[in-house]
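Lest this sound abstract, we think one record worth quoting, the chain in one-letter code, the fold tokenised, each line plainly labelled:

>
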Amino acid sequence: MDCDTARIALSAILDGEAPTASEAEPEAFAAVHSHLRTCADCGAWHREAVRLRGLTLDAATPAPDLTARVLSAVRDEDARRDVYAESLNAGRRRILRVAVAVAAGVQLALAVPALLSAAGLTDFAAVHTSREMASFDIAVAVGFLLAAIRPERAKAFVPVAVVLAACLLFSSSLDVAQGMTVMADETGHMVACVQAGLLWLLGRASVRSPRPATA
């Protein structure tokens, strides 16, 4: 058997066919195997053909469907990211709640003495105005304390705090410019500005945008 005939027969055997055009005969198989034992070139050709056939079969094997595993991994990563973000947000809320409560306490500490003070009794109009302003400051401070206790309500107090801070800044600047007061006497109004900023931050930290569901 020559090399060409042997290689045609070997190719047929690899494909699961008979080594000759006629029915498979034991003599044909024996002749092919005998040729392989004596021909190094055909032996090398056969080994390479077997290797290539193995690669072809491996490539034809369908890849496993990893869609479910990939989607599950994405959902797990999103969940871990949400937990981490919520942890940071919770820490930020705690700090802001304490800061709002401290600012409200400072406002109360400044307003209560003015409400109870009996100084300047000879100027009844000034005392009355001072006590009315102290009452207003106490009411605002109580509202801010409520926002510190229930941070989900902080957003509702933001417009009040911003308008109050803006009006106090405008009136204080006007009075200082006209010489009716001095800047040192108006520093207490900075508490209102600080409260407005803290409430705005607390309102933002207390509202989370829901993450869209993963399909």
In short: The longest helix spans residues 67-116. The helical segments are 3-14, 26-38, 40-60, 67-116, 124-149, 154-177, 190-205.
